[in-house]
Amino acid sequence: MPWSMGKDSNVLIWLARKAFAGKVPFPLLHIDTTYEFPEMYTFREWATKEHELDLLIRINQEAIDRGVSYATHDPVTVTHELKTLALRAALDEYKWDALITGIRRDEDPTRAKERHFSPRSAEGVWDYKDQPPEFWGQFASRPPAGGHVRVQPLLEWTELDIWEYIRREAIPIPTLYYARDGKRFRSLGCHPITHPVPSDADTIDKVIDELRLTRTSERAGRAQDHHERNAMQKLRAKGFM
Amino acid sequence: MSALAPATYTAQTETDVGRLHVVVVGHVDHGKSTFVGRLLHDTESLPEGKIEQVKKACAAEGMDFEYAFLLDALLEEQEQNITIDTTRIFFRTKKRNYAIIDAPGHREFLKNMVTGAASASAALLVIDAQEGVMDQSRRHAVLLSLLGVKQLVVLVNKMDLVKHDAATFQRIETEYTAFLASLGLKAARFIPIAARHGDNVVTRSKVMAWYKGPTVAEALDDLVHVDNVAGLPLRMPVSDIYRFDHRRIIAGRVESGSLRPGEPLVFLPGGRSTTVRAFEDWPITKRDVVPTGASAGFTLEEQIFVERGQIAAHPSHAPRVGREFRARIFWLGREPLALGRSYRLRLGTQDVPAFVSRIHSITDADTLAATQGDSVPKDAVADIVLRTAAPIAYDLHHECPVTGRFAIEDGERIAGGGIITEEVSSSQTNGKGRVTPAERIARHGHGPAILWFTGLSGSGKSTLSESVERRLFDAGKHVLRVDGDELRSSLSRDLAFTPEARAESVRRAAAVAGLFADTGAIVLVTLIAPLAADREKSRRALARHAFLEVYVDAPLAVCESRDPKGLYAKVRRGEIREFTGISSPYEAPQDPEVHVRTDQVDLAAATEQVLAAIDAAVREPREDWEV
């Protein structure tokens, strides 16, 4: 289960513990771009102990050594190199049948078209033109030969659902989501391309009230989505979550 | 392109009671996407700047702005001007939250509509006022009836193109009402709209003052959640059994009814009963009941055998257990659903091989005409009888829908689904006269096959065939081994080792294998059979069955070093004179169906290699073998 330490990712851990009597019975994978906010590394250390996680950390060191960085490359390229390729390398190494991801339909129009169980070919490709049917709780649960299945339990949740659930269950999340000096992060990614939004929501109740009124999109502060037309579609077809 | 953000045009109110899922269906080009775009716009559900952005993009590409473009996210859709996949759009009225499931009308994308509609509480069906009721207007209603979507609102769109004529609207209403009635459906409303201009979507139309009913937004707010199955008996398919610590926790989701500690439970199929001891929740909470739709992990008073797939129920209201039932199915597979072929049936968490043992009728979803046939084509609906390889627990759909419906898997893909209409008792399956191969296939859930393992002594024929036998047996297949050495001490104990006697020995082994295959079994023959001519004779004698030659191949030196029976040692000591591979020839197969190099792959890989070949052979059984 990939873990970004973001709010959705932490909801996934919570759901896994609920589903498996308090234990997360599979390894977690952090694709470390080396551009995480310092608070996220602190949170990673704390949460790994708190949830007793079996945590794997992967970095695309080869790309970093090659000089791939936000200072010199565009965000789509860096995201592809440091996230997608690192994920692919981990998949090649461990040959997992399934990846449990925290993506949601309301985040992006390409994610809106996702399935709860979404097959990926051996090359990691998403065939979004020919997706399996799913109905009555029956899913495409058998991985294709050499490939894997993305299992996406939060698909149907909205951003507001996530926050209301975090409040109801008191799920630990990084404090970057709460306003400091009139700004807060609504979505978290690499620090050079993730921008805070103006906000005074410094408590969870205020965040929820704010979200009920907003008409801007959650990932508006994530530069790689907006770099070019259909950037997300191109990233996701190649294996980005 | 920026995201379609969750819509939040008004603060949550007291009457906001859970998100209602609504699917939008209808014939291609009747205006579904335009309608949804307009609905989002008029309920102020679009993100800031979205409409300006799309208008700008249209102007840049020299196209007229369409409301449908608000939904088209992927490049291909804009280019082909069709919606290619189901998508969810969240919006909100003053009363509550909605998820609109935008399902495509293009014929080949029916599976996306099924995916969307199966999770919907209600459907909006769009009909073009000018074109009237078309193929897909009917086809989609047929599927909605199968999928159990009972709340239906019909939108007669493009009223502007028929001069807002009330008589046109009423004609469509009359025609379509009669059609729906034939499916047991009734529309809650017919609403005349012009989605392009927003007439009767959210705002009441001024040009259709003759229409006194609600707008679409008002009609949506009148719909109710129909997911309520709480009044039904308890059905909890077991998804797993956890043994993380000293506890043995049964896990699953309550699909209908409710579950309480202290209640007796029966697990079907299998049928053992005990009592729920306690819920094992994390974090620790005090639940006295797990209601419909919630998941549960619990311990039992007695350690009875429980496994994934079983349905937990109260003994007084248990599901049926059987191997054959009648069902109405829809088929989405690339290949037609064929009588006699092996599929997998998934019902709850049960997953078993199954067979179509009868096709009563195939319904053309456009005309509703019933036809006969021995296969069900893609996108058709049919009335069939299914037979499973092992007993399963189920309900009739009208008694308990959640365990009265199933999916059918073809290979690794879900290719169809259906609802169970009738139990088929064994007396109904008793045919007349001689038992046919099709009946045997139906009983076993697979067709017969003969695998002829040939190779030198010590090449691994017995080890491999035993491993294959174990896997097939555990998977519920009818399988047995015919061992050449064993036949030598029984049926063929009168035979010597002359070339003639060896040929006769091979002939007898083939005859025995043929008899077992006639019963429908998968037969694994292990025999050195050194001469190609003898093996070829066997193949011809058994031509009525799928025949796979499995060449178990290892170099002589490797076989000799293994020497499991000490035979090579005896040969080298001169105690055996005629020995295949040393003093008498072994003619290796030139073109075997399976070639296993046991010196290069391990037993697990070799077993998989053989199983894959068997799978391909028995998936397409021949029904014409003569006994």
Major sheet summary line of chain A: 3 strands, mixed
Q: Indicate how many domains the architecture of chain A comprises.
A: 2
Give the proportion of residues in helices of chain B: 25-40%
Note the beta-strand portion of chain A. 5-15%
Q: Ends of chain A: how far apart?
A: 12 Å
Low-confidence stretches of chain A: none
The largest pleated sheet of chain B is described as:
6 strands, mixed
Return the average pLDDT of chain A rounded to an integer: 90
Instruction: Give the number of DSSP strands of chain B.
Output: 26
Q: How is the quaternary structure best described?
A: heterodimer
CATH homologous superfamily of the largest domain in chain A? HUPs
Number of beta-strand segments of chain A: 7
User: Quick one: CATH class of the largest domain in chain B?
Assistant: Alpha Beta
Q: Which homologous superfamily in CATH is the superfamily of the largest domain in chain B? A: P-loop containing nucleotide triphosphate hydrolases
Task: Note down, in words, how this protein is organized.
Chain A is α/β, with parallel strands linked by helices and 241 residues long. Chain A folds into two domains: 7-157 and 228-237, HUPs (Rossmann fold), CATH 3.40.50.620; 176-225, no CATH class. Chain A is built from nine helices and seven strands; from the N terminus they run αβαβααβαββαββααα. Chain A has helices at residues 7-19, 38-50, 61-65, 75-94, 109-112, 159-169, 204-213, 223-226, 231-237, and strands spanning 28-31, 55-58, 98-100, 117-120, 148-151, 183-184, 197-198. In chain A, the strands form three sheets. A three-stranded mixed sheet of chain A has the order 3-5-4, with no helix packed on it. Chain A has a two-stranded parallel sheet with strand order 1-2. A two-stranded antiparallel sheet of chain A has the order 6-7. In chain A, α2 (38-50) links the parallel β1 and β2 (55-58). In chain A, α6 (159-169) packs antiparallel against α7 (204-213). Chain A is globular and about 50 Å long. The termini of chain A are close together. The model of chain A has no long low-confidence stretch (mean pLDDT 90). Chain B has a six-stranded mixed sheet, with helices on both faces. Chain B has a six-stranded antiparallel beta barrel with strand order 7-8-11-10-9-12. Chain B is built from 16 helices and 26 strands. Mean pLDDT of chain B is 85; it is low at 1-17, 73-84 and 621-627. The longest helix of chain B has 20 residues, at 499-518. By secondary structure, chain B is α/β, with parallel strands linked by helices. Chain B has four domains: 20-222, 3-Layer(aba) Sandwich (Rossmann fold), CATH 3.40.50; 236-317, Elongation Factor Tu (Ef-tu), domain 3, CATH 2.40.30; 320-430, Beta Barrel (Elongation Factor Tu (Ef-tu), domain 3); 443-619, 3-Layer(aba) Sandwich (Rossmann fold). Helices cover 26% and strands 27% of the residues of chain B. Classes of the chains: A alpha/beta (241), B alpha/beta (627). The interface between A and B is large, with 52 and 57 residues.
